[in-house]
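help with these tokens:
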Amino acid sequence: MKKIVSVFLSFVMALSMVACSSNQDTSSNSDLTKVTLMLDYTPNTNHTGFYVAKEKGYYEEAGLDVEIIEPGDNATTSMVATGKADFGVSYQEDVTYALTAQEALPIKTIATIIQHNTSGFVSLKDANITCAKDFEGKTYAGWGAPSEEAVIQAVMKKEEADFSKLTIVGADGSGIAGLSSETGENKVNIQWEFYGWAVLRAIMDGYEVNYLPCNELDSRLDYYTPVIITNNDMIENNSDICQKFMEATKKGYEYAIENPDESAEILHDVALSDVDLEFLKKSQEYLSAQYAPDVSWGVMKDEVWDNYTDFMFEYGLIDHKIEASDQYTNEFVE
């Protein structure tokens, strides 16, 4: 009987210790400022720095409890503008659209994740599409954005190609696996993809492809994608949180630059366990070299914003130009 009582008391004491520990953790967590980061898409190697910062404790050291969420059916730019997300991952063109709209959204870009556009046009090598002139007589599958058509027009115009000879259809989601080297009905020859994700994956899967980087076809297309945005209220009334968030995020990306393999493993463990780790490491190796090849991570330049704003205006995507300084700030990354 004494033995039973002793065991029972030990059990009660153990429960008490767990409860105390739990209460301490809750108290500790309550000291952190909760902020939300909404991605632009499902997690991928564009986002590695966020997950590194979270797993390495950089956000916690900054006094932040960061929740990383996917957009689902929500538009990240609108969610950030309305304060339903504190920070978000967006694109330069979306920011320019939002700020030149009839009712401009109260947002601003506070960092670029990658300092050069890493997207381009991909086709099967057997299709012999080696320049934009070769788009003539082919079929392109895309997502139907006005800027998409404008970019294709621009790169074809530069090479004196006839845009009317390109057939444009909606993408069916099959990606590079759906490409064909043949022309004709139901044959897709060209798609627009990010090299560090879809194109690299296809190459690893054995596809032989030709890849035409956008920023080599037209220098104006070397815009920032993706970028980090917040709303004006955060900048004006919670600049200290913006500073802490960006310092920790920058630390995460700088770690990923120096440690691509380990960073890929972190991303795999916490967000992409169903994705092949070998591929993630290859993707991360590529992107770690792209995050900040020119200047300190996150820092942006007026000329990049101005060039693409001019492009969007020239092709009627926006009805007026806007200053670069109204679209971004480096104050939290310099």
Observations:
- Residues 1-28 have pLDDT under 50 and may be disordered.
- Strands lie at 33-38, 64-69, 87-90, 107-112, 119-124, 139-142, 167-170, 191-194, 209-213, 227-231.
- Residues 284 and 334 are 24 Å apart (CA to CA).
- The first helix runs from residue 2 to 30.
